[in-house]
Write a structure and sequence with these properties.
By secondary structure, the chain is α+β, with helices and mostly antiparallel strands. About 40% of the residues lie in helices and about 10% in strands. The protein contains 21 helices and twelve strands. α6 crosses α10 and α7 packs across α11. The protein starts with a helix and ends in a 19-residue tail after the last strand.
Protein backbone atom coordinates (compact mmCIF):
# COMPACT_ATOMS: atom_id res chain seq x y z
CA UNK A 1 0.00 0.00 0.00
CA UNK A 2 2.77 2.44 0.93
CA UNK A 3 4.51 1.82 -2.38
CA UNK A 4 1.31 2.75 -4.23
CA UNK A 5 0.83 5.85 -2.05
CA UNK A 6 4.39 6.98 -2.66
CA UNK A 7 4.08 6.62 -6.43
CA UNK A 8 0.84 8.57 -6.33
CA UNK A 9 2.46 11.29 -4.23
CA UNK A 10 5.40 11.57 -6.62
CA UNK A 11 3.17 11.79 -9.71
CA UNK A 12 0.87 14.34 -8.08
CA UNK A 13 3.75 16.51 -6.86
CA UNK A 14 5.39 16.57 -10.30
CA UNK A 15 2.09 17.48 -11.98
CA UNK A 16 1.56 20.24 -9.45
CA UNK A 17 5.10 21.52 -9.99
CA UNK A 18 4.59 21.63 -13.77
CA UNK A 19 1.27 23.44 -13.47
CA UNK A 20 2.65 26.12 -11.16
CA UNK A 21 5.79 26.61 -13.24
CA UNK A 22 3.75 26.79 -16.44
CA UNK A 23 1.57 29.44 -14.84
CA UNK A 24 4.58 31.73 -14.65
CA UNK A 25 5.74 30.94 -18.20
CA UNK A 26 2.53 30.91 -20.20
CA UNK A 27 0.36 33.76 -18.88
CA UNK A 28 -0.85 34.44 -22.41
CA UNK A 29 -4.50 33.42 -22.70
CA UNK A 30 -7.58 32.72 -20.62
CA UNK A 31 -6.90 28.99 -20.41
CA UNK A 32 -3.47 29.50 -18.86
CA UNK A 33 -4.82 32.24 -16.62
CA UNK A 34 -7.12 29.61 -15.14
CA UNK A 35 -3.99 27.67 -14.20
CA UNK A 36 -3.05 30.54 -11.91
CA UNK A 37 -5.81 29.36 -9.55
CA UNK A 38 -3.38 26.65 -8.47
CA UNK A 39 -1.13 29.36 -7.04
CA UNK A 40 -3.70 29.88 -4.30
CA UNK A 41 -3.02 26.35 -3.04
CA UNK A 42 0.30 27.49 -1.61
CA UNK A 43 0.54 27.99 2.14
CA UNK A 44 1.67 31.62 2.39
CA UNK A 45 -0.64 32.99 -0.36
CA UNK A 46 -3.61 31.17 1.18
CA UNK A 47 -2.75 32.56 4.62
CA UNK A 48 -2.32 36.12 3.36
CA UNK A 49 -5.49 35.86 1.30
CA UNK A 50 -7.61 34.50 4.15
CA UNK A 51 -9.60 37.75 4.31
CA UNK A 52 -10.18 37.88 0.55
CA UNK A 53 -11.53 34.47 -0.33
CA UNK A 54 -8.56 32.24 0.56
CA UNK A 55 -9.93 30.97 3.88
CA UNK A 56 -11.20 27.65 2.49
CA UNK A 57 -7.86 26.78 0.89
CA UNK A 58 -5.98 27.80 4.02
CA UNK A 59 -8.20 25.64 6.21
CA UNK A 60 -7.76 22.71 3.84
CA UNK A 61 -3.96 23.02 4.09
CA UNK A 62 -4.18 23.19 7.87
CA UNK A 63 -6.43 20.11 7.87
CA UNK A 64 -3.95 18.25 5.66
CA UNK A 65 -1.18 19.03 8.14
CA UNK A 66 -3.26 18.06 11.17
CA UNK A 67 -4.11 14.75 9.51
CA UNK A 68 -0.76 13.70 8.03
CA UNK A 69 1.90 16.14 9.18
CA UNK A 70 4.00 17.95 6.59
CA UNK A 71 2.39 16.34 3.54
CA UNK A 72 2.17 19.83 2.01
CA UNK A 73 5.97 20.00 1.87
CA UNK A 74 6.31 16.79 -0.14
CA UNK A 75 3.24 17.12 -2.35
CA UNK A 76 2.14 20.71 -2.96
CA UNK A 77 5.26 22.82 -2.44
CA UNK A 78 7.02 23.35 -5.81
CA UNK A 79 10.36 24.07 -4.17
CA UNK A 80 10.06 20.88 -2.15
CA UNK A 81 9.44 18.82 -5.28
CA UNK A 82 12.38 20.50 -6.99
CA UNK A 83 14.64 19.56 -4.07
CA UNK A 84 13.52 15.94 -4.32
CA UNK A 85 14.31 15.93 -8.05
CA UNK A 86 17.77 17.36 -7.38
CA UNK A 87 18.44 14.84 -4.60
CA UNK A 88 17.38 11.96 -6.81
CA UNK A 89 19.45 13.21 -9.75
CA UNK A 90 22.51 13.84 -7.60
CA UNK A 91 22.36 10.29 -6.23
CA UNK A 92 23.00 8.94 -9.72
CA UNK A 93 26.44 10.56 -9.70
CA UNK A 94 27.36 9.52 -6.15
CA UNK A 95 28.96 6.37 -4.91
CA UNK A 96 26.74 3.94 -3.06
CA UNK A 97 28.24 5.09 0.24
CA UNK A 98 27.70 8.79 -0.44
CA UNK A 99 24.07 8.22 -1.38
CA UNK A 100 23.27 7.26 2.17
CA UNK A 101 21.71 9.77 4.53
CA UNK A 102 22.29 9.64 8.26
CA UNK A 103 20.40 10.96 11.24
CA UNK A 104 21.14 14.61 11.95
CA UNK A 105 20.15 16.48 15.07
CA UNK A 106 17.62 19.27 14.49
CA UNK A 107 18.80 22.87 14.22
CA UNK A 108 15.94 23.92 16.44
CA UNK A 109 17.33 27.26 17.60
CA UNK A 110 18.12 28.29 14.04
CA UNK A 111 14.88 27.27 12.35
CA UNK A 112 12.51 28.42 15.08
CA UNK A 113 14.56 31.58 15.57
CA UNK A 114 14.09 32.42 11.87
CA UNK A 115 10.38 31.63 12.14
CA UNK A 116 10.05 33.91 15.16
CA UNK A 117 11.84 36.81 13.46
CA UNK A 118 9.79 36.44 10.27
CA UNK A 119 6.57 36.15 12.27
CA UNK A 120 7.26 39.19 14.47
CA UNK A 121 8.20 41.36 11.49
CA UNK A 122 5.14 40.19 9.59
CA UNK A 123 2.93 41.09 12.54
CA UNK A 124 4.60 44.50 12.46
CA UNK A 125 3.54 45.00 8.84
CA UNK A 126 6.82 43.98 7.15
CA UNK A 127 6.56 41.08 4.71
CA UNK A 128 10.03 41.42 3.12
CA UNK A 129 11.72 38.62 5.18
CA UNK A 130 8.81 36.32 4.35
CA UNK A 131 9.14 37.25 0.68
CA UNK A 132 12.85 36.39 0.72
CA UNK A 133 12.38 32.99 2.38
CA UNK A 134 8.92 31.72 1.35
CA UNK A 135 9.41 28.62 -0.87
CA UNK A 136 6.49 29.37 -3.19
CA UNK A 137 7.44 33.03 -3.73
CA UNK A 138 11.03 32.10 -4.44
CA UNK A 139 9.95 29.43 -6.89
CA UNK A 140 7.89 32.13 -8.59
CA UNK A 141 10.98 34.31 -8.94
CA UNK A 142 12.99 31.34 -10.24
CA UNK A 143 10.24 30.48 -12.73
CA UNK A 144 9.92 34.06 -13.96
CA UNK A 145 13.54 35.18 -13.97
CA UNK A 146 15.32 31.97 -15.00
CA UNK A 147 13.04 29.26 -16.37
CA UNK A 148 10.73 31.63 -18.27
CA UNK A 149 13.60 33.63 -19.75
CA UNK A 150 15.38 30.46 -20.84
CA UNK A 151 12.19 29.20 -22.46
CA UNK A 152 11.74 32.53 -24.23
CA UNK A 153 15.29 32.53 -25.59
CA UNK A 154 14.69 29.05 -27.01
CA UNK A 155 11.29 30.11 -28.36
CA UNK A 156 12.67 33.21 -30.09
CA UNK A 157 15.63 31.24 -31.39
CA UNK A 158 13.15 28.95 -33.14
CA UNK A 159 11.29 32.04 -34.38
CA UNK A 160 14.44 33.22 -36.14
CA UNK A 161 14.92 29.82 -37.74
CA UNK A 162 11.22 29.32 -38.64
CA UNK A 163 9.64 32.80 -38.74
CA UNK A 164 6.55 31.56 -40.58
CA UNK A 165 5.79 28.87 -38.01
CA UNK A 166 6.87 30.42 -34.68
CA UNK A 167 6.03 33.98 -33.64
CA UNK A 168 8.56 36.21 -31.90
CA UNK A 169 7.77 37.22 -28.30
CA UNK A 170 9.10 40.55 -27.09
CA UNK A 171 11.37 40.36 -24.08
CA UNK A 172 10.35 41.67 -20.69
CA UNK A 173 12.37 44.28 -18.86
CA UNK A 174 15.45 42.69 -17.33
CA UNK A 175 15.85 43.42 -13.61
CA UNK A 176 19.39 42.47 -12.68
CA UNK A 177 18.74 42.52 -8.91
CA UNK A 178 15.79 40.16 -9.10
CA UNK A 179 17.63 37.87 -11.51
CA UNK A 180 20.72 37.65 -9.30
CA UNK A 181 18.63 36.94 -6.20
CA UNK A 182 16.69 34.19 -8.00
CA UNK A 183 19.93 32.71 -9.34
CA UNK A 184 21.61 32.82 -5.92
CA UNK A 185 18.61 31.20 -4.27
CA UNK A 186 18.39 28.49 -6.93
CA UNK A 187 22.09 27.65 -6.67
CA UNK A 188 21.96 27.58 -2.86
CA UNK A 189 18.92 25.29 -2.69
CA UNK A 190 20.32 23.06 -5.44
CA UNK A 191 23.60 22.54 -3.60
CA UNK A 192 21.88 21.95 -0.26
CA UNK A 193 19.48 19.38 -1.73
CA UNK A 194 22.21 17.65 -3.74
CA UNK A 195 24.27 16.99 -0.62
CA UNK A 196 21.90 17.28 2.34
CA UNK A 197 18.38 16.51 1.09
CA UNK A 198 15.72 18.66 2.74
CA UNK A 199 18.16 20.77 4.79
CA UNK A 200 16.67 24.07 3.56
CA UNK A 201 13.17 22.94 4.53
CA UNK A 202 14.29 22.00 8.03
CA UNK A 203 16.58 24.91 8.85
CA UNK A 204 15.63 28.08 6.97
CA UNK A 205 12.15 27.76 5.46
CA UNK A 206 9.60 29.51 7.73
CA UNK A 207 6.74 27.49 6.23
CA UNK A 208 8.52 24.22 6.98
CA UNK A 209 9.28 25.34 10.54
CA UNK A 210 5.69 26.40 11.18
CA UNK A 211 4.24 23.21 9.75
CA UNK A 212 6.81 21.29 11.75
CA UNK A 213 5.43 22.78 14.95
CA UNK A 214 1.88 22.16 13.82
CA UNK A 215 2.65 18.53 12.94
CA UNK A 216 2.75 17.84 16.69
CA UNK A 217 -1.03 17.82 16.34
CA UNK A 218 -0.96 15.30 13.47
CA UNK A 219 -3.47 12.50 13.84
CA UNK A 220 -1.46 10.06 11.69
CA UNK A 221 2.31 9.91 12.22
CA UNK A 222 5.16 7.59 11.23
CA UNK A 223 5.86 5.24 14.13
CA UNK A 224 8.62 2.65 14.50
CA UNK A 225 7.59 -0.71 15.95
CA UNK A 226 10.43 -1.38 18.38
CA UNK A 227 9.61 -5.07 18.64
CA UNK A 228 9.90 -5.87 14.94
CA UNK A 229 12.55 -3.29 13.96
CA UNK A 230 15.91 -4.93 13.24
CA UNK A 231 17.79 -1.60 13.02
CA UNK A 232 18.96 -2.44 9.53
CA UNK A 233 19.28 1.33 8.83
CA UNK A 234 17.49 1.18 5.47
CA UNK A 235 15.03 3.78 6.68
CA UNK A 236 17.80 6.08 7.90
CA UNK A 237 19.88 6.02 4.73
CA UNK A 238 16.78 6.79 2.64
CA UNK A 239 15.41 9.59 4.84
CA UNK A 240 16.14 12.86 3.01
CA UNK A 241 14.95 14.81 6.04
CA UNK A 242 17.53 12.99 8.19
CA UNK A 243 14.98 12.80 10.99
CA UNK A 244 14.94 9.09 11.91
CA UNK A 245 16.80 8.39 15.15
CA UNK A 246 17.32 4.65 14.99
CA UNK A 247 19.25 4.64 18.26
CA UNK A 248 16.04 5.54 20.09
CA UNK A 249 13.74 4.28 17.32
CA UNK A 250 11.90 7.59 16.98
CA UNK A 251 10.91 9.82 14.08
CA UNK A 252 11.11 13.60 14.47
CA UNK A 253 7.76 14.45 12.88
CA UNK A 254 8.59 18.17 12.98
CA UNK A 255 11.14 17.49 10.23
CA UNK A 256 9.43 14.56 8.51
CA UNK A 257 7.88 15.65 5.18
CA UNK A 258 5.75 12.53 4.75
CA UNK A 259 7.62 11.38 1.65
CA UNK A 260 6.98 7.69 2.58
CA UNK A 261 10.53 6.63 1.63
CA UNK A 262 11.04 4.88 4.97
CA UNK A 263 7.80 2.92 4.79
CA UNK A 264 8.62 1.65 1.31
CA UNK A 265 12.17 0.43 2.02
CA UNK A 266 11.46 -1.17 5.41
CA UNK A 267 11.59 -4.94 4.84
CA UNK A 268 9.91 -5.82 8.13
CA UNK A 269 7.12 -3.23 7.82
CA UNK A 270 8.24 -1.77 11.13
CA UNK A 271 7.55 1.85 10.10
CA UNK A 272 3.90 2.58 9.58
CA UNK A 273 1.57 5.55 9.74
CA UNK A 274 -0.53 5.09 12.85
CA UNK A 275 -3.45 6.83 14.44
CA UNK A 276 -1.74 8.67 17.31
CA UNK A 277 -4.37 11.08 18.57
CA UNK A 278 -4.51 9.46 22.00
CA UNK A 279 -0.79 8.78 22.25
CA UNK A 280 1.10 10.92 24.69
CA UNK A 281 3.94 12.78 23.04
CA UNK A 282 7.25 11.88 24.71
CA UNK A 283 10.70 13.07 23.69
CA UNK A 284 13.81 11.08 24.47
CA UNK A 285 17.09 12.60 25.62
CA UNK A 286 20.30 10.67 26.11
CA UNK A 287 22.54 12.07 28.84
CA UNK A 288 25.58 10.32 30.30
CA UNK A 289 24.36 7.04 28.91
CA UNK A 290 21.03 7.33 30.70
CA UNK A 291 17.70 7.54 28.89
CA UNK A 292 15.55 10.41 30.16
CA UNK A 293 11.89 10.68 29.16
CA UNK A 294 10.78 14.28 28.73
CA UNK A 295 7.07 14.96 28.27
CA UNK A 296 6.48 17.76 25.77
CA UNK A 297 2.72 17.76 25.49
CA UNK A 298 1.55 20.07 22.72
CA UNK A 299 3.38 23.19 23.77
CA UNK A 300 5.17 23.69 20.44
CA UNK A 301 1.98 23.28 18.47
CA UNK A 302 0.21 25.79 20.68
CA UNK A 303 3.07 28.23 20.16
CA UNK A 304 2.70 27.83 16.39
CA UNK A 305 -1.05 28.34 16.48
CA UNK A 306 -0.63 31.35 18.78
CA UNK A 307 1.95 32.91 16.48
CA UNK A 308 -0.22 32.41 13.43
CA UNK A 309 -3.33 33.67 15.23
CA UNK A 310 -1.54 36.81 16.35
CA UNK A 311 -0.21 37.42 12.85
CA UNK A 312 -3.67 37.05 11.32
CA UNK A 313 -5.15 39.30 14.00
CA UNK A 314 -2.56 41.98 13.23
CA UNK A 315 -3.45 41.68 9.57
CA UNK A 316 -7.18 41.81 10.31
CA UNK A 317 -6.92 45.07 12.28
CA UNK A 318 -4.63 46.47 9.58
CA UNK A 319 -1.83 47.29 11.99
CA UNK A 320 0.68 49.68 10.54
CA UNK A 321 4.34 48.78 10.06
CA UNK A 322 6.49 49.14 13.17
CA UNK A 323 9.57 49.66 10.99
CA UNK A 324 9.40 51.28 7.61
CA UNK A 325 11.71 53.30 5.42
CA UNK A 326 10.20 56.63 4.46
CA UNK A 327 11.95 57.78 1.31
CA UNK A 328 10.27 59.80 -1.39
CA UNK A 329 8.04 57.19 -3.01
CA UNK A 330 8.73 57.01 -6.73
CA UNK A 331 7.30 53.55 -7.42
CA UNK A 332 3.85 53.18 -8.95
CA UNK A 333 2.09 50.14 -7.54
CA UNK A 334 0.01 47.96 -9.90
CA UNK A 335 -3.79 48.34 -10.05
CA UNK A 336 -5.44 46.62 -7.11
CA UNK A 337 -2.60 47.36 -4.69
CA UNK A 338 -4.80 49.94 -2.97
CA UNK A 339 -1.76 51.62 -1.38
CA UNK A 340 2.00 51.25 -1.05
CA UNK A 341 1.54 50.22 2.58
CA UNK A 342 -1.00 47.53 1.65
CA UNK A 343 1.36 46.16 -0.99
CA UNK A 344 4.27 46.01 1.44
CA UNK A 345 2.19 44.21 4.05
CA UNK A 346 0.72 41.57 1.77
CA UNK A 347 3.01 41.00 -1.20
CA UNK A 348 5.57 38.19 -1.03
CA UNK A 349 7.18 39.09 -4.36
CA UNK A 350 6.18 35.84 -6.06
CA UNK A 351 6.15 37.82 -9.35
CA UNK A 352 2.97 36.25 -10.68
CA UNK A 353 1.87 39.74 -11.76
CA UNK A 354 5.29 40.39 -13.29
CA UNK A 355 4.97 37.24 -15.38
CA UNK A 356 1.34 37.89 -16.28
CA UNK A 357 1.58 41.50 -17.51
CA UNK A 358 1.08 41.36 -21.30
CA UNK A 359 2.88 44.69 -21.80
CA UNK A 360 5.83 43.76 -19.56
CA UNK A 361 5.59 47.00 -17.59
CA UNK A 362 5.57 45.38 -14.13
CA UNK A 363 9.06 44.76 -12.85
CA UNK A 364 10.72 43.99 -9.48
CA UNK A 365 11.39 47.13 -7.46
CA UNK A 366 14.84 48.21 -6.31
CA UNK A 367 14.59 51.41 -4.26
CA UNK A 368 11.28 52.79 -5.55
CA UNK A 369 9.42 51.81 -2.37
CA UNK A 370 12.34 52.00 0.04
CA UNK A 371 14.45 49.21 1.47
CA UNK A 372 11.44 47.33 2.82
CA UNK A 373 9.91 47.18 -0.66
CA UNK A 374 12.76 45.51 -2.54
CA UNK A 375 11.61 43.04 -5.24
CA UNK A 376 7.94 44.06 -4.91
CA UNK A 377 6.13 44.77 -8.22
CA UNK A 378 6.42 48.30 -9.58
CA UNK A 379 5.30 49.83 -12.89
CA UNK A 380 7.75 51.15 -15.45
CA UNK A 381 6.52 53.02 -18.52
CA UNK A 382 9.80 53.13 -20.43
CA UNK A 383 8.82 50.42 -22.92
CA UNK A 384 5.01 50.41 -22.73
CA UNK A 385 2.01 51.51 -20.68
CA UNK A 386 -0.84 49.93 -18.70
CA UNK A 387 -3.54 48.83 -21.13
CA UNK A 388 -6.95 50.36 -20.46
CA UNK A 389 -8.81 47.08 -20.94
CA UNK A 390 -6.42 44.81 -19.05
CA UNK A 391 -6.82 43.68 -15.43
CA UNK A 392 -4.69 40.53 -15.59
CA UNK A 393 -2.26 41.44 -12.78
CA UNK A 394 -5.03 41.79 -10.22
CA UNK A 395 -6.62 38.53 -11.35
CA UNK A 396 -3.53 36.33 -10.99
CA UNK A 397 -2.40 37.57 -7.56
CA UNK A 398 -2.83 34.54 -5.27
CA UNK A 399 -3.32 36.55 -2.09
CA UNK A 400 -4.53 39.94 -0.92
CA UNK A 401 -1.63 42.00 -2.29
CA UNK A 402 -3.51 42.99 -5.46
CA UNK A 403 -7.25 42.94 -4.93
CA UNK A 404 -9.17 41.56 -7.93
CA UNK A 405 -10.56 44.38 -10.06
CA UNK A 406 -13.21 44.17 -12.74
CA UNK A 407 -12.39 45.91 -16.01
CA UNK A 408 -14.70 48.78 -15.09
CA UNK A 409 -13.17 49.21 -11.65
CA UNK A 410 -9.68 49.02 -13.07
CA UNK A 411 -10.50 51.76 -15.58
CA UNK A 412 -11.29 54.07 -12.69
CA UNK A 413 -8.42 53.01 -10.42
CA UNK A 414 -6.13 56.02 -10.08
CA UNK A 415 -2.70 54.54 -9.40
CA UNK A 416 -0.79 57.72 -10.20
CA UNK A 417 -1.23 61.23 -11.53
CA UNK A 418 0.28 62.92 -14.54
CA UNK A 419 2.26 66.13 -14.30
CA UNK A 420 2.78 68.20 -17.42
CA UNK A 421 6.08 70.07 -17.83
CA UNK A 422 5.52 72.81 -20.41
CA UNK A 423 9.21 73.68 -20.68
CA UNK A 424 9.95 70.14 -21.95
CA UNK A 425 7.05 69.82 -24.44
CA UNK A 426 8.18 69.89 -28.08
CA UNK A 427 5.28 72.21 -28.89
CA UNK A 428 7.02 74.78 -26.68
CA UNK A 429 10.65 73.89 -27.35
CA UNK A 430 10.47 73.15 -31.10
CA UNK A 431 7.40 75.11 -32.11
CA UNK A 432 5.84 72.05 -33.76
CA UNK A 433 2.54 70.21 -33.60
CA UNK A 434 2.36 67.02 -31.54
CA UNK A 435 -0.72 65.82 -29.67
CA UNK A 436 0.58 62.28 -29.10
CA UNK A 437 -0.46 62.39 -25.43
CA UNK A 438 -4.00 63.51 -26.27
CA UNK A 439 -4.32 60.84 -28.94
CA UNK A 440 -3.33 58.03 -26.61
CA UNK A 441 -5.01 59.07 -23.37
CA UNK A 442 -7.77 56.47 -22.83
CA UNK A 443 -9.81 58.60 -20.39
CA UNK A 444 -9.48 61.92 -22.26
CA UNK A 445 -7.79 63.45 -19.24
CA UNK A 446 -5.62 65.26 -21.81
CA UNK A 447 -7.06 67.55 -24.45
CA UNK A 448 -5.34 69.98 -26.80
CA UNK A 449 -6.02 73.70 -26.40
CA UNK A 450 -4.72 76.71 -28.39
CA UNK A 451 -1.19 77.77 -27.44
CA UNK A 452 -1.23 81.56 -27.54
CA UNK A 453 -1.28 83.09 -31.02
CA UNK A 454 1.11 80.55 -32.51
CA UNK A 455 -1.61 78.51 -34.16
CA UNK A 456 -0.33 75.50 -32.26
CA UNK A 457 -2.09 73.44 -29.63
CA UNK A 458 -0.74 72.51 -26.21
CA UNK A 459 -1.87 69.71 -23.85
CA UNK A 460 -4.36 70.58 -21.11
CA UNK A 461 -4.62 68.14 -18.20
CA UNK A 462 -7.68 67.31 -16.09
CA UNK A 463 -6.18 65.47 -13.06
CA UNK A 464 -9.51 64.09 -11.82
CA UNK A 465 -9.81 62.01 -15.01
CA UNK A 466 -6.23 60.75 -15.03
CA UNK A 467 -5.72 57.14 -13.88
CA UNK A 468 -1.92 57.12 -14.19
CA UNK A 469 -1.83 54.45 -16.91
CA UNK A 470 1.39 55.88 -18.37
CA UNK A 471 0.21 56.08 -21.98
CA UNK A 472 1.10 59.77 -22.20
CA UNK A 473 4.50 59.32 -20.58
CA UNK A 474 5.40 56.38 -22.78
CA UNK A 475 4.36 58.06 -26.02
CA UNK A 476 5.75 61.52 -25.30
CA UNK A 477 8.50 62.21 -27.90
CA UNK A 478 10.33 64.80 -25.79
CA UNK A 479 14.00 63.95 -25.11
CA UNK A 480 15.99 63.55 -22.97
CA UNK A 481 13.23 64.12 -20.42
CA UNK A 482 9.52 63.54 -20.93
CA UNK A 483 7.04 66.39 -20.80
CA UNK A 484 4.43 64.04 -19.35
CA UNK A 485 5.49 62.19 -16.19
CA UNK A 486 3.39 59.91 -13.98
CA UNK A 487 3.92 60.43 -10.26
CA UNK A 488 3.05 57.71 -7.76
CA UNK A 489 0.13 57.89 -5.35
CA UNK A 490 0.90 56.30 -2.01
CA UNK A 491 -2.82 55.64 -1.64
CA UNK A 492 -4.74 54.82 -4.80
CA UNK A 493 -7.83 56.87 -5.58
CA UNK A 494 -10.91 56.52 -7.77
CA UNK A 495 -10.87 58.74 -10.84
CA UNK A 496 -13.89 60.55 -12.19
CA UNK A 497 -15.68 58.83 -15.06
CA UNK A 498 -14.79 60.29 -18.46
CA UNK A 499 -17.44 62.54 -19.97
CA UNK A 500 -15.98 62.44 -23.49
CA UNK A 501 -15.56 59.47 -25.80
CA UNK A 502 -13.01 57.02 -24.44
CA UNK A 503 -10.24 55.62 -26.60
CA UNK A 504 -10.75 52.07 -25.46
CA UNK A 505 -8.33 50.54 -27.92
CA UNK A 506 -5.02 52.30 -28.42
CA UNK A 507 -2.76 51.29 -31.29
CA UNK A 508 0.77 52.59 -31.08
CA UNK A 509 2.97 52.70 -34.17
CA UNK A 510 6.73 53.14 -34.25
CA UNK A 511 6.54 56.92 -33.92
CA UNK A 512 3.55 57.18 -31.61
CA UNK A 513 1.45 59.39 -33.89
Amino acid sequence: MYRFLKKGRVVFSIIFLLIITSSFIFFINRETLLMSEFLKFQFVPSMLGIFSGGAIVFLLLLLLTILFGRAYCSTLCPLGTYQDIVSRTASVFKSKKNRRYSYDKPFSKLRFGILLIVGVLFMGGISLPLALLDPYSNWGKISNEIISRSEQYIHNGLAEIMPDAVFFRSYAHFAIGSFLFALFFLITVTLLSAFKGRLYCNTICPVGSFLGLLSRFAIFKPVIDKETCTKCRLCVINCKSQCIDLENQTVDESRCVACLNCTVVCKTNSIVYKYTLNRKKVAVDIKDGTTILRSEGRRNAMIAMGLMGTALAAKAINAGPMISSRPKVTGIAPPGAMSIEHLKKNCTACHACVAACPNNIIQPATTEYGIDGILLPVLNFKHHFCSYECNVCSQVCPNDALKPLSIKDKQLAQIGQTQFYLEKCIVHTDGTDCGACDEHCPTKAITMVPYGDSGLFIPNLEPELCIGCGACEYICPAVPEKAMVIHALEVHQIAAEPTLDKQEKVKVDDFGF
